[in-house]
Write a structure and sequence with these properties.
heterodimer, A: mainly alpha, 3 strands, about 70% helix, B: alpha+beta, Penicillin-binding protein 2a (Domain 2), Beta-lactamase, 2 domains, seven-stranded mixed sheet, five-stranded antiparallel sheet, 23 helices, about 40% helix
Chain lengths: ~375, ~600
């Protein structure tokens, strides 16, 4: 265990603890209707403990064994995603949750780990990534999952998966020129889908998704409907100034002006109550995660290990960028959680599990002799 | 991938990642530091709201300080339309169940107030019982946008008594909102009566409360308060106990008449006006039937309104000031004054009444003839008044001429609004003359018209208020004051803002001998051996000068019964007029009511009246 990256783990624990504090601030009013102002905090803490348990389990098994099982995980994820479409619970206009007893499971979160493992397995053979081959292989893994995700539909997860795939391909050594072309084509298709949906000749997006995108460009025009979230979030963050209004002192948060403040818009609570300093602190902690993760990526014993790390880091990065960008009015509104901070058991559990994968690669790194 | 290539790509991606994190931090800097003040102001705008606090309406008291109208605190359930963002239907339905009202009704209230600002609370149910207010508060989490306010609600402790003087309140109409300044859409305003005439003094200035609200516009904390300035109090000239006695006297008399055998049809409504002859102050003003202004403030005011509208006696109609009737013989003092002043007769001239007189080719008969009684025989001014001898007045009126009669009538306050400080304005009535007849009927004035006018019939129309005003003029020997209801306006701090001084309405110049003749005639009516109101005042301890009137209105129905008077006859304090629609003879029907009202004024018990 000498090789366990304590700095990375500490950053993760700090993010989680800060997250619990902010979740408490965001939910104590809401939770009182359930007779326990710590209701959400307790559930989140239990998810975190389960997450650390999963992390410990993951650490005991060599990641190469896990990657060997990747097809099984992949198939399992496809089944779960399909199950969501059949018996899923609707939330915010899309079916995303599966009820498991008193808990609800978000299969798209699980699917991201399976996809990471599968991509790491499929692209680890250097020969197979040359030219367009690696890109096609990666797309072959991505597309079935994407299809099920878009049927929900869950744009945020779809965007994250695309980002992850791109990240793994970059570190698998696919030619940068081809990847640039691929990205350009992907962006072109996205623009076509949006424009086509608005004008009606390619109705692939649901009306609420189109609205969210329009809102992104002109939130004040829709300030009573879809624009409300973004505007209230920007007011919350902006009014936090340098040091914030103090814990429990945010009027936007405590008086319920902020929607989904304990889940998607938790960063707005941080911005309001802890100011620029608090927001920068969170960005810094994520920076530490990426820095230590990058070290592990470079020190990995084999390319399977580095690709696994690349996938996990890309996933977290996409979440951070899309979620925080959304609260700052830089990204359209999608239902993506901020890893380790947002309230949501599945997200905490899977994020900790995937951090476990990174630590796993770090544990079994090659010996470096200076 | 070769090791150096992996390192290069890692470094490059690390750089990209750093740039993205810096971009996010930069955006945070932009929002929080560069535009921080702007967003802080927006956040405050979100959470702060100015709520208005209703000002308690000024109280209305009678001349003795007895309360006619004041306020009590009541619970009002309001909706902030801007707070009804989510689940509007469910909230409206849930609230409807608590209030016992249909969701459509509540929606109608909300829709009916489109002009409202989205964060201005709209009253949905006023004056709900405490248990309903508690139920709403208990379910507050499920009722976003709904709030319970405490606000003053108008109360009229005397109920029906004086309702026509006080009037009632109603929801402000769009016209009210346009014409008055600073009203909330669901405010109540005086619709009629003194409540309306003095709206500007009574309403006060509403206060404001700066409150912190949550996203559902529910107040969380009070940050500051500008207390409301209560409205000013009115002190009326009215005497509540006299008003009550007059109302009861009219009600009981009408009830008695209804039971009476051999009548031609039932009686209608009634009216009593009592004036202070030294000022013009109104001591009592009754229009019967009355209504209960409290019921206009309840939830089912619509049903109450419909019920009043359906009543054939039109309780909403203020007959004391709006009803215009032929005064009948109660007009005769004017005819006598006109004849004496034009010197076409003297008080002592003896006229032999045969009961039949021919004027302008038409034959006029006295009421004695139509009832099969012997005619009066020789009479003078005083005995003609005492016995209400029609042929005497036909002749004297014809001698005086229509112009003299009309001028005398106008100088005593008839034929024009008396300018009472109430809404709607009291009616002008009608004093006819040839010019009027030509203009309105396109006909010339016949001598017979003058004869009819002489005994208060024909085109002549007066309101009960005007008849009381006229008798005030008789009591004062020509000085007629403008009648009024509000004698003072007092601020909430007790400062008198306004005190009414008596105002002259008109003046009739006449010689003392003429006044004496009229005065003696009116006294004889109540105390002469053959006075038409003798039986009503036989036991009355104070000398009363009055006159009966039985105005013919419709064939086959009883006459309107009038009695007008002033008392004490030799040092007058009050003048009054009593009208009972279709009551029958003035002496039999109206004079006993007048007796009871005067007994109440002088503090006598009921035994002094029949």
């Amino acid at each position: 265990m000498r090789n366990l990256d304590v700095v990375l783990l500490s950053a993760v624990v700090l993010l989680l603890l800060f997250g619990l504090l902010v979740v408490y601030s965001a939910t104590r009013g809401l939770a009182e209707t359930r007779g326990d102002s710590f209701y959400y905090v307790k559930r989140q803490a239990i998810a975190a403990l389960l997450g650390f348990a999963a992390m410990a389990v993951v650490l005991t098994v060599d990641y190469r064994h896990l990657i060997k099982l990747s097809r099984l995980f992949y198939l399992g994820s496809l089944l779960l995603l399909a199950a969501v479409l059949v018996v899923g619970r609707v939330g915010g206009g899309a079916e995303r949750w599966l009820a498991v007893g008193p808990l609800s499971l978000q299969p798209s979160e699980v699917a991201k780990i399976s996809l990471t493992l599968s991509l790491a397995s499929a692209l680890s053979d250097r020969e197979r990534v040359e030219g367009w081959r690696g890109i096609f292989i990666a797309l072959a893994w991505l597309v079935p999952m994407w299809g099920l995700i878009l049927l929900q539909p869950d744009l945020g997860t779809a965007m994250t998966m695309a980002g992850m795939t791109l990240g793994v391909l970059i570190f698998a050594g696919a030619p940068m020129r081809n990847l640039a072309l691929l990205t350009a084509a992907g962006l072109g298709a996205a623009v076509a889908a949006v424009v086509g949906s608005i004008q009606g000749w390619l109705p692939v997006l649901k009306p609420y998704q189109v609205n969210r995108l329009i809102v992104f460009f002109d939130p004040y025009r829709y300030r009573h409907d879809e624009g409300w979230n973004v505007i209230q979030s920007m007011i919350a963050i902006g009014s936090g100034n340098l040091f914030g209004k103090g814990l429990f002192g945010g009027s936007q948060t405590q008086l319920n002006f902020l929607p989904a403040r304990h889940t998607d818009f938790i960063f707005s609570v941080i911005g309001e109550e802890f100011g620029f300093v608090g927001g920068a602190f969170v960005l810094l902690l994520f920076g530490v995660v990426f820095w230590r993760g990058g070290r592990i990526l470079l020190q990995a014993k084999d390319s399977m290990g580095s690709l696994l790390v690349a996938g996990v880091l890309s996933m977290i990065f996409c979440h951070v960028l899309i979620n925080i960008g959304m609260t700052l009015g830089l990204m359209p509104v999608t239902g993506l959680p901020l890893p380790l901070i947002s309230y949501g058991g599945t997200s905490v559990l899977t994020t900790l599990t995937s951090i476990g994968l990174v630590l796993n690669v770090g544990l079994r790194r090659k010996k470096i002799h200076f | 991938m070769a090791e150096p290539e992996l390192q290069r790509r890692t470094r490059r991606m690390g750089l990209v990642l750093l740039l993205v994190l810096l971009l996010l931090a930069g955006r945070m800097w932009q929002l929080q530091i560069v535009h921080g003040e702007h967003y802080a102001a927006l956040a405050d705008g979100n959470r702060m709201r100015r709520l208005s606090i209703s000002a308690p309406r000024g109280a209305i008291r009678d001349r003795e300080g007895r309360v006619l109208a004041d306020n009590r605190l009541a619970f009002t359930v309001s909706i902030v339309p801007g707070g009804l963002v989510e689940d509007r239907e469910a909230v409206v339905e849930r609230l409807g169940r608590i209030l016992g009202r249909s969701p459509e009704e509540i929606e109608a209230t909300l829709q009916g107030n489109q002009r409202a600002y989205p964060y201005e609370p709209l009253r949905v149910a006023r004056d709900v019982p405490p248990e309903v207010a508690v139920a709403v508060e208990e379910q507050r989490m499920d009722l976003p946008g709904v709030m319970v306010e405490q606000e003053p609600i108008r109360r009229y402790p005397a109920g029906n008594i004086a309702s026509h003087v006080l009037g009632y309140l109603q929801l402000a109409s769009p016209e009210d909102l346009a014409s008055y300044d600073g009203y909330r859409t669901s405010d109540l305003v005086g619709r009629i009566g003194v409540e309306r005439a003095y709206e500007g003094y009574l309403r006060g200035q509403r206060g404001f409360q700066q409150v912190e609200v949550n996203a559902l516009s529910r107040p969380i904390r009070v940050l500051g308060t500008v207390p409301p300035a209560p409205g000013n109090d009115l002190v009326l000239t009215l005497d509540l106990e006299l008003q009550r006695a007059a109302t009861e006297a009219v009600a009981e008399q009408l009830e008695r008449l209804k039971q009476e055998a051999g009548r031609q049809g039932p009686p209608g409504g009634g009216a009593v006006v009592v004036l202070d002859v030294k000022t013009g102050g109104v001591l009592a003003l009754v229009s019967y039937p009355e209504y209960d202004p409290n019921k206009f403030l309840t939830g089912d005011r619509g049903a109450y309104f419909a019920e009043l509208e359906k009543d054939p006696l039109s309780p909403l109609f203020n007959r004391a000031i709006q009803g215009a009737y032929a005064p009948g013989s109660s007009f005769k003092p004017i005819t006598l004054l006109a004849a004496l002043e034009r010197r076409v007769t003297t008080a002592d001239e003896v006229y032999v009444a045969t009961g039949v007189v021919e004027i302008g080719g038409r034959v006029f008969r006295d009421w004695t003839i139509t009832r099969g009684l012997p005619p009066a025989g020789p009479v003078n001014a005083v005995t003609a008044m005492e016995r209400s001898v029609n042929d005497y007045f036909y002749v004297m009126g014809s001698r005086a001429g229509v112009q003299a009669i009309a001028a005398t009538a106008r100088a005593l306050g008839l034929g024009g609004s008396a300018g009472l400080d109430i809404w709607p304005q009291d009616a002008a009535g009608l004093v006819p003359d040839p010019a009027w007849k030509r203009a309105s009927q396109g006909e010339i004035w016949y001598p017979g018209d003058t004869a009819n006018l002489s005994i208060g019939q024909g085109f002549l129309q007066v309101t009960p208020l005007q008849l009381a005003v006229m008798y005030m003029g008789l009591a004062n020997r020509g000085t007629v004051y403008e009648p009024y209801l509000v004698q003072a306006i007092v601020s909430p701090t007790g400062e008198t803002l306004y005190r009414r001084e008596p105002r002259l309405l008109s003046y009739l110049e006449a010689s003392p001998s003429s006044w004496n003749a009229v005065h003696q005639g009116l006294v004889a009516v109540t105390s002469g051996e053959r006075g038409t109101a003798r039986s009503a005042f036989a036991r009355f301890p104070v000398k009363v000068a009055g006159k009966t009137g039985s105005a013919q209105v419709a064939p086959g129905r009883e006459t309107h019964a009038w009695f007008a008077a002033y008392a004490p006859a030799d040092d007058p304090e009050v003048a009054l007029a009593v009208l009972l629609e279709y009551g029958g003879g003035g002496g039999a029907a109206a004079a006993p009511v007048a007796c009871r009202v005067l007994a109440a004024y002088f503090g006598f018990d009921g035994n002094v009246c029949p």
